[in-house]
Design brief:
Layout (H helix, E strand, L loop, with lengths): L1 E3 L5 H6 L3 E5 L3 H6 L2 E4 L5 H36 L5 H19 L5 H27 L3
Parallel strand pairs: 1-2, 2-3
Helix pairs in contact: 3-4
Length: 138
């Protein structure tokens, strides 16, 4: 990781695995850096690292959870324990919603509940529309 202002250290920043420019956001900064932190407060770098670690942790958990659920669903369907594909699809979709909500934790405490509310409203309206199409006389 290379951290700098992006002007006289732009070449080093471009060669680094991760280049972080702290400053005004000039075109030199934007081209040389992978991440641009506006302003002059280097303490924001600490917050950036914390967010990156939290993102990595949530990503690993979401992938593990998704693979686990998928393996269980495939096993139950192939072994004959679950003869209803509908139930498998519903379990999978509920697990996807769980992954989305878990990922929403990155957006902050207040935004998570708003996202859950929006998902609920979308699911409800989508279900109503699906039933209308399913039971309509064409």
């Amino acid at each position: 990781m290379m951290v700098g202002d992006g002007f006289n250290d732009a070449a080093a920043m471009a060669k680094a695995d991760i280049g972080v420019a702290i400053g005004a956001g000039e075109s030199v900064n934007l081209e040389a850096a992978d991440v641009l932190i506006p302003g002059d407060d280097p303490r924001l770098l600490s917050e950036l690292i914390t967010i990156a670690k939290k993102t990595s942790s949530i990503l690993k958990w979401n992938i593990s959870y998704s693979v686990f659920i998928t393996m269980i669903l495939v096993y139950t369907v192939l072994s004959g324990l679950n003869k209803s594909l509908t139930i498998a699809v519903l379990v999978h979709e509920v697990s996807v919603i769980g992954v989305i909500i878990n990922g929403a934790r990155l957006s902050g405490a207040g935004e998570t509940w708003k996202l859950i509310s929006d998902i609920g409203k979308s699911l409800f309206s989508g279900t109503i529309e699906s039933f209308k199409v399913l039971f309509s006389k064409v």
